[in-house]
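Subject: for your reference before the review

Hello V.,

The reviewers asked for a structural picture of the protein, and I figured it would be easier to keep everything in one thread rather than splitting it across files. Below is the amino acid sequence we used in the manuscript, unchanged from the supplementary table.
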Amino acid sequence: MNAQAIDTEKARFNMIEQQIRPWEVLDATVLHTLTQVHREDFVPAVHRALAFTDMEIPLPCGQCMLAPRVEARLLQELQVQPTDKVLEIGTGSGHMAALLGAQALRVISLEIEPELARMARDNLQRAGVRNVEVREADGSLGAASDAPFDVILLSGSVAEIPDTLLQQLAPGGRLAAIVGDEPMMRATVVRRLGAGSLQTSQPWDTVAPRLRNFPQPSRFRF
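And here is what came back from the structure prediction:
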């Protein structure tokens, strides 16, 4: 292993130990996945030096990659299983899709920006990820023709979770999103317990960029 590779692995180790573990991400499968899916391979070349920093990384079209600790904790909340079919909203660079793909059977990832969809497909192909399909589509509508899904992840924030997406969640399925308005947003996990029963928890606070095309709640009050 050359010096550059050693430095990269040290930076990855430090990211996990100094950013991710302290944020209560302790699941062994998630931590292993973070060592196997190389974040730097999904970062635009101009920002590659920032791959392991505790920050969002700019992407084309005004979008960004979520901070490593946010991605890791969302992944932990979802408890992805090897038999799961996953829907991701907001592909971005493809990194979160690759993390999901490392744990799930199949991932469909929806990206509204054509440039980002192309970038993600290229990144996933170079990384050898074969079980992720990137579609250029409006993620707020989900993918009803492929529903139900065991896991749905919104890789960004929304003002509220659309019922359209909740209806595409399988019994026993989990949906995770970051919900609210700045400066206070909350990670929100919805579990479908049965045909008409949903359980919602909001285990931690964070802030994340808005996903495009999601409806804003009415501000009108009587």
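For the response letter, the relevant points are probably these. The mean pLDDT is 94. The CA atoms of residues 45 and 86 lie 28 Å apart.

Happy to draft the paragraph if you're swamped.

O.
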